[in-house]
Amino acid sequence: MIEIARIQAWAFRSPTKRPVATSFGVMHDRPAVLIRVEDRDGVFGWGEAFANWPAAGAEHRVRLLQMDIAQLVLNKPAATPAEFFHQLADQTRIRAVQCGEVGPFSQVLAGLDIAIWDLAARRAGLPLRKFIRQDAADQVPAYASGIQINAAAEILPAARMAGHQRFKVKVGFNMPTDIALVHDVQTDLSGEETLACDANQAWNLEQACAFVDGVAGLPLHWLEEPMPVFTDRTKWQELARQSSIPLAGGENIIGVPEFGKAIDAGHLSVVQPDVAKWGGITGCLAVAQQALRAGRRYCPHFLGAGIGLVASAELLAGVGGDGQLEVDFNANPLRTMFLDGEKEPIIRGAWQCSDKPGLGVEALPNDITQFQTLHVDLC
């Protein structure tokens, strides 16, 4: 039985010299919401809630946890992390709909779920991946992400030096320029290297088809979110029929039923839920298993701080399959401070998992306090 006696949450903001640009907006700092839970025996766990958008999101998520959700968790026993997750989802559903904030509630629940899974795995003395599946691998394929296409020529050499062999570039800014630069990047890749593209929901069907036509013949690994998640499913299916490039998506889908509809519709070859955005370990594990059963690839989406990245790696290893771990290659101390040597453990294109219990995170790094904007301690 798990009974949470204490919850702590922090909002952080790290300045960035190079803003992170997407087709729909620019991040001018790197925010993070980190959550620590502790049971009555002093066993603890760490989690992370999505906070990239809107710009004021990080502090809002901490206050949402403090004032609306914590009382539903503290001193409320549950047999498993999954039981906690489903109880909270049921208890907060009307609140989330009432205020039109399904996303923020989902994100806080995701962070709590990660923390409770970490606690449970730590209590069992197992790395999270081994807690999920006893024979989980100790490394997973990874790729360097968050690379704006205009900066790819500068960034890819550094990503190679860091051990990466797979890359994903952000497109959706200017169609002719994007297409020309994708051709240039692909031409410069070696035989073992791969390239994927992420449009961040930039286009309608006609524009997405134009991009697909413009990069025809290139062996792109996948095309991620070419259209908004709310685009009619028949248009997604039409694009999938016209595209020789596998389509990817999932970071903006909420709920196992909605993922099930997308998987059954057949247009997504690569399914990408985000552990910090919806579902935590509980929800994303269910979706990953569903995707694998349907013959799809599970590749977790993630663009945040270090705890969520490690959770994504452990979940991917625990699930198995031929998925790849997304590793943001933009500078972000809120990510690298949590990693030994302050760099990602990438060797020959693979993330090396830790043998420590749970997520392997014991405490916040000392230097992280300089970025703190809010802290709450609840018991």
UniProtKB/TrEMBL annotation:
<dbReference type="InterPro" id="IPR013342">
    <property type="entry name" value="Mandelate_racemase_C"/>
</dbReference>
<dbReference type="InterPro" id="IPR036849">
    <property type="entry name" value="Enolase-like_C_sf"/>
</dbReference>
<dbReference type="InterPro" id="IPR018110">
    <property type="entry name" value="Mandel_Rmase/mucon_lact_enz_CS"/>
</dbReference>
<feature type="domain" description="Mandelate racemase/muconate lactonizing enzyme C-terminal">
    <location>
        <begin position="152"/>
        <end position="246"/>
    </location>
</feature>
<dbReference type="GO" id="GO:0016052">
    <property type="term" value="P:carbohydrate catabolic process"/>
</dbReference>
<dbReference type="Pfam" id="PF13378">
    <property type="entry name" value="MR_MLE_C"/>
</dbReference>
<dbReference type="InterPro" id="IPR013341">
    <property type="entry name" value="Mandelate_racemase_N_dom"/>
</dbReference>
<keyword id="KW-0460">Magnesium</keyword>
<dbReference type="InterPro" id="IPR046945">
    <property type="entry name" value="RHMD-like"/>
</dbReference>
<dbReference type="GO" id="GO:0009063">
    <property type="term" value="P:amino acid catabolic process"/>
</dbReference>
<keyword id="KW-0479">Metal-binding</keyword>
<dbReference type="GO" id="GO:0016836">
    <property type="term" value="F:hydro-lyase activity"/>
</dbReference>
<dbReference type="GO" id="GO:0000287">
    <property type="term" value="F:magnesium ion binding"/>
</dbReference>
<dbReference type="InterPro" id="IPR029065">
    <property type="entry name" value="Enolase_C-like"/>
</dbReference>
<dbReference type="InterPro" id="IPR029017">
    <property type="entry name" value="Enolase-like_N"/>
</dbReference>
<protein>
    <submittedName>
        <fullName>Mandelate racemase</fullName>
    </submittedName>
</protein>
<dbReference type="Pfam" id="PF02746">
    <property type="entry name" value="MR_MLE_N"/>
</dbReference>
